[in-house]
Amino acid sequence: VSIEPENQGSFNAGTFQYAFQLFDSETQKSIGEKDLVETHTKILHFVAYDSSRNEFNHVHPEFNGKIWSVDLTFGTNGTYFFWAQGQLNDGTEFSTFTKAVIVNGKPALPVVKLEEKRKATDGATTLEMDKTKLKVGVMAMINYKVTREDGLKPELTPYLAAPAHVIAVSPDGDELIHVHPMAGSSPNSGMIHATFPSEGDYRIWVQLVDRGELKTIPLAVSVSK
Question: What global pTM score does this model have?
C-alpha cells in the first residue's frame, strides 16, 4: 500500500487539511473505506511527526467517497513524516509513509540525538518506564507505572480500545512501531511488548487517558546491538 498526497507542495504552519489517496500495489486500485476493517475503533490511523521527533499528531482520517482527508496542527517548520496505518479486508495490515514540508511557522527544530528519558509528565500525569535494556531484534518487555504530580490517584480508562497507544520512531525517522500495552499488575501500570529493528535513540510517545483527559507523554530510549 502506498500513500499519494493530493497536494505535492508545502503546507503553512497552523491547522490545515491534508488530503491523500491510498493505492494497493497488487490490485493497482485505490483503497477506500469499504476496503478496510476497523482497528482499535477507527478505520484508519494517521501518525505525523517532524524530523527532530518533537512535534507529533495521532489522528484519524475520513473518506468522502473519493479521497481521504485529515486535519493536522503543527506550528513548527520542518520536514514531517506522515504515516497511514490500517488493515485490508483480507486481514493484511499496512503501514506506509510519505514526507511533507511545513513552512511559515516557528523555526525548525534541530535533528539531534535524543537523551535517554524514561520518565516524563503531561499535565499532572507522569509515566515512568523501567530500566529494561533494549537490543536490536529482541522482543522487549518494558514495565511502566503511571502516577500523578497533584496528589490524586490516576484513573486510567481505555484509549481507542487499548490501555494505551505506544508509538516509537527510529533515529532516522523512517521506522515506526505502533503497539498496545498489556494491563499491568496494578490499575496504574502496564507492560509494553516491542521489537526494535535498528540501534540508536528512539522517540517514544505514550498516549493514554487519565481522569478523562488524553495525555501524550514523550520519552526516549537507547537501543543497542
Answer: 0.95
